[in-house]
Amino acid sequence: MENVNQAEFWQERYEKNSTGWDMGHVSPPLKAYINQLPESAKDEAILVPGAGNAYEVGYLYEQGFTNVTLVDFAPAPIEAFAQRYPDFPSEHLICADFFSLSAEQYQFDWILEQTFFCAINPARRDEYVQQMANLLKPQGKLIGLLFDTDFGREEPPFGGTKEEYQQRFQSHFGINIMEPSYNSHPARQGSELFIKLRAK
């Protein structure tokens, strides 16, 4: 399981096109969330960590959001995104380990969670919560999806339960929403929680 902490593990999966988690388009619940945001939100600083092929980043950019940052520590998806969106500002494409980002350098209004939490070693989940809180401005939001199911295996995606997530996040976040997603992709129907958490 340790290799999921290595960029090489993920780079190899992209090179071999072994990306079964990839839906090929923006996640329906996240698209719906983005669509209801006010015009004033388009200048907010947004982070999408472990973004992979970053369909959500592309969608935000297409909708006129001007301050979106993509982070992944495998270069392949970042290079592919840059080819699809050649006008996207290169300084917002960061090839780095999410856990190494400095809160002194980066602060965001909200962070979009989409298949990143389930890709990291479960032993790092408390570290994830701490780092998310560090990178958010006061009262900043963590928005996205978490798997509400046990995949029963020792490789990603790693699942979990609502009870576990509540216990882990409550130390650093107020939980505004953590409920079953009603508009998930058909392949994920009944297995996702939509979350809206606010940094304390």
Automatic annotation (TrEMBL):
It comes from the Bacteria. It holds the Pfam family TPMT. InterPro entries: SAM-dependent_MTases_sf, TPMT. CDD domains: AdoMet_MTases (cd02440). One of its GO terms (biological process) is methylation. Transmembrane segments: none annotated. One of its GO terms (molecular function) is S-adenosylmethionine-dependent methyltransferase activity. PROSITE patterns: SAM_MT_TPMT. Keywords: Methyltransferase, Phosphoprotein, S-adenosyl-L-methionine, Transferase. This is SAM-dependent methyltransferase.
